[in-house]
TrEMBL record:
Residue stretches making up the Clu domain: 350-591
GO cellular component assignments: cytoplasm
Molecular-function GO term, any one: mRNA binding
Protein name: Clustered mitochondria protein-like protein isoform X3
Coiled-coil residue windows: none
Length: 1316
């Protein structure tokens, strides 16, 4: 199987003869082993090459739309679907009302499900004609609904995804950038001429700020556009009677125009026309006096209503003004936690659609339900041999998956709202099962008591979350012949619902007898050999050990995965895996049921997470294996060198103990020393974290060092290429060149399949004398080469103590069922002890390596969490579970420059515990009581509630909550301020092992300190609560919330989108080209990856952001500022639409956009964007954050560049204050900022402060680089110049007119004084 790069570039080849290809990665579909040369039996003809070029080559076309003057020019690719032209029409204000259309090319009707490469004779410059198709009843209803949506979109902003950028960025940004660059070339300096470019008062630097206004979070409310029509709805004369149906009548509409006239409209296959009916008489004949037929409803209304024609033009103008990404739908819906309620208008069409949906009425739509499992499995079975095949396959998978998530979300809401009856209504409520739209819904409760001894309901809840991680891991492998179920977790109204596609035939068979692999309850173990063969390949990729277990008959079975992973063969013949929560080893640090004392592993305190299902993340397993492998390589190097030195010493009489002495003399740096280390020289002197022999994770290996590459952004130990080059023969020389850390050598297979070690000359473990001896030893081949027997002996000795299951190869596997309660392991005590020891080492690896590594990344500002979401993402990227938050908090509390991390950790623990308390209360409440429950909880946390019950924010009367169903009433009653805080403190100490010793939530917010607004935001997002956009006073006095503040509840969906392998691989190829300096080729690959992303997942999806960011940077390298700004703008729009307006990654995108605006000469626009970024950081965290120093530095520099130095000084002073905390007063970055601040002071006339800052900058550079450094000399020259100007300024301040003349040599003293 050829590599992706060969597939992409093969059409450039002109060789049509038979060739050979190298299988480089794994085993191909024909069973050929990695690295084996296989015959390529097919010939690439010129026609095939031309076809591939046609697929990936851009095609410039013209789109001729009927009724629109002039064609629309578009650019498509061969692999684009023809149906994508509909999106082009939706973005065209003159054609957006057309829904029933067709596309024609040279008189041939085009099939929209095909791509452009299927069009015969298509070439650049061709015209695609858009025709008006006849309506069906369904098409007519879609057309009416589309018109309603377009009319409503301009009237009021909805409650869903919003974009603030549209209110900052002008539509003619490209023209403004061009004018700015032309002016800069002519020598014009940018100036601030707009008041909007001056910062609002609420974002001014203020270290004592305690609150942030919420009104600027949402886009400003604009005046709604005028209505186009009074009412439009389905007529009471529907459905058409038999005779009229035969004449073509589809439906009737009643319309009332703004002029006050009422009409009845007939929808026919040819379009819409007026009939003569009214509310009392039915006359379907066409009206002869008013209007004519029109294919669109909007066209007919424009004929009969002048007001409609006038106002619809305003709507079209508004649509044309908007950026396309503002209204292009996103794959997955994003909800804002703070909203302005939309105006609820009278709309009978909307009412008809909402009440005639499929909820509870599946009998009306039989035959139209989608078989999600068949669609998804069929998409995965599509061919994947070529790039085009892979693109089509991944697009089909992504489309089915996004539709499934939308349907599953709707179904879960219907389940919890009581609109779908249970399949088993006589069972306990925990065991209720539901089916809607071919989706299976269930609650993650332990209804069958399978987890009774390992945590009960809490364990079942955890396994549901772990299951989607397992599904994601299996789908990432993309094993042919192995399928998983589409799965989503939906949290809504305090409950969690598991939504899954249905395995064919599972509902018609007994669940206990359909298992082909695994066990359901531990009583019966099944093992299908076909399944076992597939799982062996999966286990090899996931490092799962083949374990021996006893089955129900007492026989020993070898299972290549956990017995709790279940396999089912559906009636469609496909193999399905379910319950994939045990694909990673157990975390023995939190195994409270084990025989070991967990207090020694998670700090000095014992924690209780409430279940025995604590398992590691896949990321930490990969990091641990990388570390073990580096240890293996170092041991090989050590033993090989000892053997070589031994042979050399026998011939030359040299002492071979020199290396050990050098090794012993290497210094060790303990964690305590790092905690006290000054950050001023951290950029020049990277920190190495060294552990003692007792802390090593490789057993008795004798190795003391654990290398930590603090510059790397990876989660685990140093990458293989940083420690050792593991390369294939094709890139062997390149592999030796790329190492830059602890490079010890390269291991290569020889022709006999054995392994030999090729030492690198950069081996850091060698002293100078040893290198000389090694070079001398290469003079003779007999001395240099070790025998086959010695090589194997070295390998075996190196593998000792590493936990490898093989004695001659590095193969690390974990026993996933080590703590399973559903199986009995059959291995010997020695083997089980070895498995247990390996899991213990992995658990210790987190405590002694991953957590300190995260600490160092935070110390160096490589990891800068901003809120709970970003902290979770950073820790999960490093394989650290959130249950380690208590340990992390204790670690970061030891340094003042990590106070922001401590604040976020404590805030996150409070949020997680408070969420559990509130969800329990919400789960017991009826929907009508939900606002009262939420308000009571929020008031108890952020306000002051002394007695149980729900109180209104506007008065002192207490309103008891009357539950309609006494069975759902909670025993504890409602919250009070004291009970809420006591419960949070208690659970934090129990679950996280961290004691927050404050008497109240408000005293903790002042002592830690943390932002109450940030906690409110996170709670709303996790609970699915949308609040009214108004100012809330969270000072702990009174009742800040009322029931009217709770606007809506929305579902929170957890899922893993399908991996887009094809564009990701092309994007990685682009990164490798950039490393080689091939910028042009890198741009081409990034554009190709972007095109594949858009073809597979749509233009507005989060996957494209990486390409947009890279393209912006690449075009900046090539001095193409306009393209750089364009791509950065699109990337930021997508971040805002897909993640939310106040997501931390949106904030980062805003900073990048501001930089692009500055590069394009748009200083005013850059300031607006930076003000927005600063405000978001205040909402997410507050003032004291290292990211704030970056934002303020950019604001200060931009103000300085346009001559607003007094404003620049205000921000640069705040930068110095923050950099003194997070960098240190003597850091070079702080010195550079002081130099910039000195310039701003000087230009503002404040020479004393300027000299003071310049002196401190000079001392910093002098200490870092010495007096003779060019950098220091520049600062010194600036200091001398400032001193002279300050002396002159002082003289002029106190001089007479004659003295000024003598000093300046000018007769105009006033002018001279002003100039100085």
């Amino acid at each position: 199987m050829a590599t992706l790069e060969e597939d992409i570039q093969h059409h450039n080849s002109t060789d049509s003869g038979e060739g050979e290809e190298i299988v480089e990665n794994g085993i191909d579909k024909d069973g050929n082993i990695e690295g084996e040369v296989v015959e390529n039996n097919h010939k690439e003809t010129e026609e095939e090459i031309a076809e591939d070029e046609h697929i990936f080559k851009p095609i410039h076309l013209k789109l001729a739309i009927q009724g629109v003057s002039g064609p629309t020019e578009i650019t498509v690719y061969g692999q684009d679907l023809i149906e994508g032209l509909r999106q082009v029409l939706m973005e065209n204000p003159l054609a957006c009302f057309r829904t029933c259309i067709g596309f024609w090319h040279h008189g041939t009707r085009l099939d929209e499900v095909q791509d452009f490469s299927s069009i015969q004779g298509l070439k650049d410059g061709d015209t695609i004609r858009v025709s008006e198709d006849p309506y069906s009843l369904r098409e007519a209803q879609i057309h009416v609904r589309r018109l309603e949506e377009l009319l409503d979109s301009g009237l009021e902003m909805g409650t869903q995804s919003l974009s603030y950028l549209a209110h900052i960025l002008p539509t003619d940004i490209d023209e403004l950038a061009t004018q700015a660059m032309v002016g800069e070339q002519q020598g014009n300096k940018p100036t601030i001429i707009e008041e909007q470019a001056i910062e609002p008062d609420y974002i001014n630097p203020d270290p004592s700020r305690s609150s942030v206004p919420l009104s600027p979070l949402l886009p400003p409310r604009t005046s709604p556009l005028p209505s186009c029509i009074h009412t439009i709805h389905y007529s009471g004369w529907n459905p058409p009677p038999g005779p009229q149906r035969l004449k073509g009548d589809l439906l009737y509409l009643d319309v009332t125009t703004l002029e006050g006239f009422s009409y009845c409209i007939t929808a026919s296959p040819q379009g819409f026309y007026l009939n003569c009916s009214d509310k009392e008489h039915f006359d379907p004949t066409a009206h002869q006096d008013l209007g004519t037929r029109s294919h669109t409803l909007a066209g007919l209304l424009s004929q009969i209503s002048p007001s409609f024609k006038k106002n619809i033009a305003l709507h079209r103008k508004e649509l044309q003004r908007r950026h396309s990404f503002e209204f292009i739908p996103t794959p997955f819906q994003v909800h804002c936690w703070l909203i302005n309620p939309s105006r609820h208008s009278y709309n009978l069409v909307r009412a008809h659609d909402s009440l005639q949906g499929r909820l509870g009425h599946e009998e009306h739509t039989l035959g139209q339900l989608r078989d999600w499992n068949a669609e998804l499995a069929g998409s995965r079975d599509l061919p994947r041999e070529t790039v085009y095949n892979r693109m089509v396959r991944e697009r089909a998978i992504y489309k089915v998956y996004t539709d499934f998530i939308e349907a599953a979300t709707q179904g879960a809401q219907a389940v919890l709202d009581g609109n779908i009856p249970a399949l088993n209504p006589t069972d306990d409520e925990k065991n209720f099962l539901f089916i809607w739209n071919n989706i299976f819904f269930s609650y993650p409760y332990d209804g069958r008591e399978l987890y009774k001894n390992v945590g009960g309901d809490r364990a079942a809840y955890i396994t549901a979350a772990k299951d989607i991680h397992g599904i994601a891991a299996i789908e990432e492998l993309d094993v042919e012949g192995l399928h998983t179920l589409a799965t989503a977790l939906v949290d809504y109204r305090g409950h969690r619902v598991v939504a899954q596609s249905i395995v064919p035939g599972i509902l018609q068979r007994d669940q206990e007898n359909i298992l082909e692999y695994g066990t359901l309850d531990g009583k019966k173990l099944s093992k299908n050999e076909k399944f076992a063969g597939l799982m062996r390949g999966v286990g090899q990729e996931l490092n799962v050990k083949i374990e021996q277990v006893y089955d129900h008959e007492g026989r020993v079975q070898e299972m290549p995965s956990s017995v709790e992973c279940k396999g089912i063969i559906g009636t469609d013949g496909r193999n399905y895996l379910i319950d994939l929560y045990r694909i990673t080893p157990p975390d023995l640090n939190f195994d409270q049921y084990s025989e070991q004392d967990t207090s020694e592993k998670v700090g000095e305190k014992r924690v209780d997470i409430g279940h025995k299902m604590a398992m590691h993340r896949r990321e930490i397993v990969e990091s641990f294996i990388q570390y073990k492998y580096s240890t293996f390589i170092q041991k090989i190097s050590k033993l090989t060198l000892e053997e070589q030195n031994k042979e050399v010493s026998e011939k030359k009489g040299l002492d071979s103990d020199l290396k050990d002495e050098e090794h012993k003399s290497q210094p060790e740096v303990a964690l305590e020393q790092i905690l006290e280390k000054d950050l001023s020289d951290i950029d020049k002197n990277p920190v190495l974290l060294l552990a003692t022999k007792d802390d090593s994770f490789g057993g008795d290996t004798g190795e003391k060092e654990i290398g930590v590459d603090i510059k790397s952004e990876t989660a685990g130990p140093m990458k293989n290429e940083e420690i050792i080059s593991i390369v294939s023969p094709s890139n062997f020389e390149e592999g030796l060149e790329c190492t830059n850390q602890l490079e010890v050598g390269v291991i290569l297979p020889d022709d006999n399949g054995s392994v030999k070690l090729v030492l690198s000359e950069k081996n850091l473990n060698l002293t100078t004398d040893e290198k000389e001896r090694t070079e001398d030893s290469t003079e003779s081949e007999e001395t240099n080469k070790l025998g086959q027997k010695k090589v194997m002996e070295i390998l075996c000795n190196s593998l000792e103590g590493l936990g490898s299951i093989s004695e001659s190869d590095f193969d690390l596997r974990f026993n996933m069922d080590l703590t399973s309660h559903l199986c009995k392991l059959a291995g010997s005590s020695e083997v089980l002890e070895k498995d247990k020891k390996l899991c213990e080492e992995l658990s210790e690896f987190i405590i002694h390596y991953s957590l300190p590594r995260f600490f160092i990344d935070c110390l160096q500002l490589q990891a800068m969490p901003v809120d709970s979401v970003s902290l979770t993402r950073l820790l999960h990227f490093r394989g650290i579970n959130m249950r380690y938050l208590g340990r992390i908090t204790e670690l970061v509390s030891k340094r003042e420059d990590l106070s922001h991390v401590k604040t976020i950790c404590i805030s996150d623990m409070i949020i997680r515990v408070a969420k559990r308390h509130i969800r329990r209360e919400m789960g017991e409440a009826h929907l009508s009581e939900m606002p009262g429950v939420i308000v009571n909880a929020f008031n108890s946390l952020f306000g002051c509630v002394e007695t149980p019950g729900v109180e209104e924010a506007t008065g002192g009367k207490k309103k008891k909550s009357k539950k309609k169903n006494q069975r759902l009433k909670q025993e504890n009653g409602t919250f009070t301020t004291q009970s809420m805080w006591t419960g949070i403190q208690s659970e934090m100490e129990t679950y996280f092992g961290y004691k927050l010793d404050y008497r109240s939530f408000h005293s903790a917010s002042e002592g830690v300190p943390f932002s109450k607004l940030s906690i409110l935001r996170s709670l709303c997002m996790k609970l699915g609560v949308q609040l009214l956009a108004r100012e809330y006073h969270l000072e702990g006095k009174g009742l800040p919330f009322a029931e009217s503040d709770v606007i809506n509840l929305h579902p929170v969906v957890k899922h893993f989108p399908p991996t887009l392998h094809l564009p990701q691989e092309i994007h990685k190829m682009a990164s490798s080209r950039f490393g080689l300096g091939l910028v042009k080729e890198c741009i081409e690959l990034c554009l190709e990856a972007l095109n594949h992303y858009q073809n597979i997942a749509g233009p507005n999806n989060i996957e494209t952001v990486g390409c947009y960011k890279d393209l912006a940077n690449l075009y900046l390298v090539t001095k193409d500022v306009l393209n750089s700004l364009n791509f950065q703008q699109k990337g930021t729009f997508i971040l805002e639409r897909n993640l939310g307006m106040d997501d931390p990654r949106t904030l980062t995108g805003l900073i990048g956009l501001a930089t692009s605006c500055c590069n394009a000469g748009l200083s005013q626009l850059a300031l607006k964007v930076l003000f927005r970024a600063r405000y978001l950081l205040l909402v997410l965290f507050g003032e004291k954050h290292p990211q704030m120093a970056t934002i303020d530095l950019n604001i200060g520099y931009t103000y300085h560049s346009v001559g607003e130095n007094k404003r620049a000084v205000k921000y640069l002073e705040n930068v110095i204050r923050l950099q003194d905390i997070f960098y240190g007063s003597q850091h070079v970055q702080t010195g550079m900022t002081r130099h910039l601040l000195s310039k701003a002071y000087s230009l503002a006339g404040e020479y004393r402060q300027a000299i003071q800052q310049e002196k401190q900058a000079y001392n910093t550079f002098k200490e870092k680089y010495g007096e003779d450094s060019e950098k220091t000399k520049v600062i010194s020259a600036g200091l001398s110049d400032l001193t002279q100007k300050a002396v002159l300024f002082e003289k002029l301040q106190h001089a007479t007119r004659k003295e000024i003349y003598d000093i300046t040599g000018s007769s105009n003293g006033d002018t001279a004084s002003k100039q100085n």
